[in-house]
Design a protein that fits this description.
Layout lengths: L2 E8 L5 H14 L5 E8 L5 E3 L20 E4 L8 E4 L13 E4 L2 E4 L10 H8 L9 H8 L1 H10 L7 E5 H6 L1 H11 L4 E5 L9 E3 L2 H11 L5 E6 L4 E11 L2 E10 L8 H5 L15 E2 L6 H17 L3 E11 L4 E8 L17 H19 L10 H10 L9
Parallel strand pairs: 1-2, 1-7
Antiparallel strand pairs: 2-3, 3-4, 4-5, 5-6, 8-11, 9-10, 9-11, 12-13, 12-15, 13-14, 15-16
């Protein structure tokens, strides 16, 4: 039976455009004999639209909400019917024109950044009873926040760079105290990163106090929580993907992105070789497999599987590592719970084509959803009876949580 698969992309995120590229690339590679693709584009201000025209990249150059070939839609969280409805603000006043646009069997999240990769959309889909492909609410939220992520990695005994953090309010109220705390804990140079952003947006490197101030001023425009971490000498990035759910997890081959900068900027990741028809993360110059020893490869793959299970991930993720050449020390940098281009290029060398990878993502979505249905969500207690009894007798105490 052909399944209706909704593909979510766009969103209220600085990574909006990258998400569009990831989604269109995925839609192009989906097996049309198995799936009916329902593109759901989320605009920069949060409105949802669907329509065949959304499969064309030209639509996004000058997006027109009034286009008659597009339908504004919404997904109610208070129903388990998995139905997408036509949006009509008058529905709340008059129960007319409540039109079902489509039934959703499962959703693929091609979202990047906040309001999509961070657990918010995952929570809505879970409430609505829709199987979805990305990590769950817990893994998505923890994987989005770099500060929480590094704390989890460190607590699990994984090697991470020394770091400290602060929030925007601290910076606005007492800059000197923030600067002194950073300089007390870390030596220059350091990297400054918005805690909840990806794609290298808002990241800066500082070799002295003035550069630190400048980098922080940029970072606080993108997030209220800021991570500052130690820089590595002669850094070399190595990435590895992991695929699966529960105990069924496999690590991919490793890659080494090639950059002529000290770190990969947004342009390095997504704009280089922009005329490449495949676009996305695959267009980045990279070496696959990474030119590293078999021993280091196995260590990275083992860490990738460990992190996948620690964060209770689902589907496909990418874990980025940093190798300090000067000391030959490996660090875990971060996890991307919805990696650009779904990291399909790391699975092709292992004999898994992009269409087959998509099949796997949908398969794991259904498996995870079926496991959620096995949970017991009801528990019979005497709390209400006891509360009513106490209220009627004038006693409102005595009910313990």
């Amino acid at each position: 039976m052909i399944k209706n698969i909704a593909v979510f992309f766009g969103g209220m995120s600085v990574e909006h455009d990258v998400s569009i590229v990831t989604a269109l690339q995925l839609i192009e590679n989906m097996n049309k004999g198995k799936y009916t693709v329902l593109p759901i584009y989320i605009t920069r201000d949060g409105d949802w639209y669907t329509g065949e025209k959304l499969k064309n990249i030209e639509t996004y150059k000058h997006f027109d909400k009034a286009d008659k070939e597009l339908t504004r839609v919404y997904l109610p969280a208070n129903t388990r019917a998995r139905q997408l409805y036509k949006y009509n603000p008058l529905n709340k006043l008059f129960k007319k024109d409540v039109r079902i646009v489509a039934k959703i069997d499962a959703a693929i999240l091609a979202m990047h950044g906040l309001h999509g990769e961070d657990g918010t959309l995952q929570g809505l889909l879970q409430l609505a009873g829709v199987p979805y492909t990305s990590s769950g609410v817990l893994g998505s939220a923890a994987g989005m926040d770099k500060i929480l992520m590094k704390a989890a990695f460190k607590g699990a005994g994984l090697p991470v760079l020394d770091y400290t953090f602060f929030d925007r309010e601290n910076w606005q109220q007492n800059q000197n105290a923030v600067l002194e705390n950073i300089e007390e804990k870390l030596d220059y140079p350091v990297f400054i990163k918005p805690s909840n952003l990806g794609s290298s947006i808002g990241i800066g490197k500082a070799k002295n106090r003035q550069e630190l101030i400048n980098a922080i001023e940029v970072a606080v425009n993108y997030d209220r929580r800021i991570l500052v971490e130690k820089s590595v000498e002669q850094p070399c990035e190595i990435n590895c993907s992991a695929l699966g759910f529960g105990s069924d997890v496999t690590a991919s081959v490793c890659e080494m992105p090639v950059s002529w900068e000290e770190f990969l900027t947004y342009e390095d990741k997504y704009m280089r070789n922009g005329k490449n028809s495949k676009g996305g993360m695959q267009s980045l110059s990279r070496q696959i497999p990474a030119p590293i020893t078999d021993e280091l490869t196995k260590q990275i793959q083992a860490y990738a599987v460990q992190i996948f299970k620690l964060m209770d991930c689902k589907g496909v993720v990418r874990i980025d590592f940093m190798l300090e050449k000067a000391t030959d020390t490996l660090y875990v940098n971060e996890i991307n719970t919805i990696p650009g281009s779904f990291s399909f290029y790391l699975w092709e060398p292992m004999g898994l084509t992009y269409p087959q990878l998509i099949d796997k993502l949908i398969e794991y979505a259904f498996i995870a959803h079926s496991q959620l249905k096995q949970n017991q969500y009801a528990f019979n207690s005497e709390i209400i009876t006891q509360f009513a009894k106490n209220k009627n007798s004038g006693k409102l105490c005595g009910v313990k949580k």
